[in-house]
Design a protein that fits this description.
Blueprint: H1 2-6, H2 12-24, H3 30-35, H4 38-44, H5 51-69, H6 72-76, H7 80-88, H8 95-105, H9 115-125, H10 133-143, H11 148-164, H12 182-199
Helix pairs in contact: 4-5, 7-8, 9-11
Bound molecules: iron/sulfur cluster (SF4).
Iron/sulfur cluster (SF4) binds near residues 166, 170, 172, 183 and 184.
Length: about 200
């Protein structure tokens, strides 16, 4: 859960360093984080970037959970929809962070949409405009059986695909989705049109 909050606007490698610092200082529990000073917390999570803002939010979230539910387990006993609403009501938690917490920490099936998933799906579908979080999530929920492990696996596969092939400049050559993807076809058509123009 700490990872899901700290990973906003930074890479996971930086988050791992921040988490190692927190663990080293014995500060990975709700109570410990709630009672730690913001200054100390900020120093420990510095590798994750935006550390002052994140320290304030992390401590605020932990305090809020402790006050409302006593323990994390207490909050995770909420039904999935209620849990999502409760998380989204906390400052610093948006859709992706809430769903990551629900899927990985609370272990309830919900499809997480991240920047990799959005990029792949946009190119795959050939859509020019952005696809909203809710629309994309609803697409997967409609088309995949609800299953905790499959949702985790699908999320991990999108991350891997986005890192290996569907990068900002895509490496379509070896991509396993190439056959179904609109992007390389559109790129090929644009190249052909460009050559025709040059000849004409
Ligand atoms: S074929 Fe290219 S654009 Fe399509 S998903 Fe693969 S890497 Fe991305």
């Amino acid at each position: 859960m700490v990872g899901a909050i700290l990973t906003q606007q930074t890479s996971w490698g930086n988050v791992e360093k921040a988490i190692a610092n927190l663990k080293g200082a014995g500060l990975m529990g709700l109570g410990q984080i709630s009672s730690c000073s913001e200054r100390k917390l900020a120093g420990l999570i510095r590798p994750s970037g935006y550390y002052r803002q994140k320290a304030k939010r992390l401590r605020g979230i932990c305090r809020g959970i402790a006050a409302a539910y006593g323990t994390l387990e207490g909050m995770f006993r909420l039904e999935r929809g209620e849990l999502r609403r409760a998380l989204l009501g906390m400052k610093g938690i948006g859709n992706e962070t809430a769903d990551s917490i629900i899927l990985y920490a609370a272990e309830k099936p919900i499809f997480v949409i991240d920047a990799y998933t959005e990029r792949v799906m946009k190119r795959l579908s050939g859509r020019e405009s952005a696809i909203g979080y809710t629309e994309l999530q609803a697409y997967f929920t409609r088309n995949m059986a609800e299953d905790l492990d499959r949702y985790k696996e699908a999320h991990a596969q999108f991350v891997e695909l986005g890192k290996r092939y569907c990068r900002p400049v895509p490496l379509c050559g070896g991509c396993p989705l190439r056959k179904w993807c609109a992007y390389p076809k559109a790129a090929r058509a644009a190249r052909t049109a460009h050559l025709d123009d040059a000849k004409g």
